[in-house]
Write a structure and sequence with these properties.
By secondary structure, this protein is mainly alpha-helical. It is built from 19 helices and 10 strands. The longest helix is centred in the first third of the chain and has 55 residues. The termini are far apart.
Length: about 475
């Protein structure tokens, strides 16, 4: 009899414990439902907020169909300091030869996407992983961009130029850029749509040295008639340029060899050389970057291209372009890009599409005098009748002019500054900018000696010192 009590007590404890477990289970379920409901509510609020933001920021965006109707001409006009002498119209100086997707070598497209947008062929116009990675890098002090190729194209062509330029509206611009990029990808779906987008991107880009579009850049820098003639190294150079065309401009980074050939020194301290080699190394190390040319190039071939010399074609006058003070105009255009398009931009729709009236610091009367005397110093000594040539260009003949022939003077340059304000009054980067008939290995008139031909001053600096 005594043993029954403990057994009954044990069964009673089991029932109490069972009721406790059931109570705990109900509590866990209740807490889980509250947590789930909280997440659902947050998600619903986020969804409503996203839809609301999309509705607000989608208003006023240009139609995505504009991508198929890009206009490339510019009518911005540059005047001298009087505002009466027209120096240039930027549409006349714009070199662009649009190409179709089929005319672009697949390796050039792969090199471009590998450095600008690795997920181009699969993303929805934006790359969330890339954005998060860029944010983390920025936090670590290694700031970089995360814009896809579609976003870059949208920023250049399918957003309000005032919005793109305004540093106080960066968040608004980024949101609209993302929305518009997704819309473009939806409007041009599938592989055929991606081909349309990359084709527009390659034709739109500014590549430096007055070249718009990849075909114009290939001709201007390398003298090729077809993109299929490009080498691996040249392909990587073209893919590298859109990030910063002014900084990476090959002519700006060029030096002159003993035979007067323009070349870029193969030194990775030169930014464009480092960027070219980085693109080639990345493709060699990560075959997944080569979507269109998988297996066509070995890592050894790609790495060998990092040792390829960078030789530039002779720089000749642009067809149909007759600017006054042309070297000055190119320098002014670079300054305008910074002022109008932002410190990190090399071009923008307002600069390209025109409507601007720009009064420069140049005094055209002084410019004509400067050009006349540079011409006298460079061409006159090599003429068969120097005195007659002096009369022809309107300078008094002096005996020292003839003596320059024996000194092997092949080019000259001149700049006149207002020492109080720093304004450029006259700027002659080389003699005879449009004298293609005078072009020789020793004399390339489109090469801007003032901007790109830096040399040690030697003893010429002693008077200033």
């Amino acid at each position: 009899m005594q043993s029954r009590g403990p057994r009954r007590a044990a069964r009673h404890d089991d029932r109490v414990a069972g009721r406790g477990k059931r109570s705990n289970s109900r509590l866990y379920v209740a807490i889980s439902m509250v947590i789930f409901g909280g997440f659902a509510l947050v998600g619903l609020i986020g969804l409503i907020g996203t839809v609301g933001l999309f509705a607000i920021y989608s208003q006023g965006l240009p139609p995505t169909s504009d991508l198929g109707n890009l206009q490339f001409l510019s009518e911005s006009v540059v005047y001298d300091r009087t505002g009466t002498v027209e120096l240039a119209r930027f549409n006349a100086g714009e070199r662009r030869e649009p190409v179709t997707f089929d005319e672009v070598p697949p390796i050039l497209i792969d090199a471009t996407t590998s450095t600008e947008d690795k997920s181009f062929w699969t993303n929805s116009g934006v790359d969330p992983v890339g954005i998060m990675s860029a944010m983390l890098d920025t936090i670590r002090g290694r700031e970089r961009g995360a814009s896809t190729i579609t976003q870059q194209l949208v920023r250049q062509r399918l957003l309000d130029p005032d919005l793109v330029r305004d540093p106080g509206r960066v968040i608004e611009r980024k949101i609209k850029e993302i929305i518009q990029s997704v819309r473009v990808t939806q409007a041009y779906p599938g592989e055929a749509g991606k081909q349309r987008i990359i084709e527009a991107y390659l034709n739109q880009n500014y590549y430096g040295n007055g070249s718009y579009g990849v075909m114009s850049a290939a001709k201007g820098y390398f003298g090729v008639d077809s993109l299929s003639q490009l080498t691996l190294g040249q392909v990587a150079l073209l893919a590298a340029l859109p990030k910063s065309p002014s900084t990476y401009d090959l002519v700006r980074n060029a030096d002159v060899a003993d035979d007067w050939t323009l070349y870029v020194p193969l030194n990775e301290s030169v930014p464009i050389v480092f960027r070219r080699n980085e693109i080639l190394r990345n493709m060699a190390e990560d075959p997944s970057r080569m979507v269109l040319t998988q297996g066509q190039y070995t890592p050894e071939q790609l790495l060998a291209a990092t040792r390829e010399p960078i030789i530039l074609a002779p720089q000749t006058a642009r067809p149909g372009q007759q600017w006054l003070a042309p070297h000055f105009v190119w320098a002014l255009r670079d300054e305008l890009a910074v002022k109008l398009c932002g410190p990190d931009a090399d071009t923008c729709p307002q600069l390209e599409q025109g409507g601007l009236r720009i009064t420069s610091s140049l005094d055209y009367n002084l410019q004509k005098i400067a050009e006349k005397w540079v011409t006298a110093g460079v061409f006159l000594p090599h003429e068969t009748d120097p005195e007659a040539y002096a009369a022809q260009i309107g300078v008094p003949f002096e005996p020292w002019m003839k003596k320059l022939e024996k000194l092997q003077v092949n080019n000259g340059a001149m700049i006149a500054l207002d020492y109080q304000t720093g304004e450029v009054l006259a700027y002659v980067g080389s003699a005879g900018y449009y004298r293609d008939d005078k072009t020789t290995p020793q004399f390339q008139p489109q090469f801007d000696v003032l901007a790109n031909g830096w040399r040690q001053p030697g003893s010429a600096f002693k008077p200033f010192n």
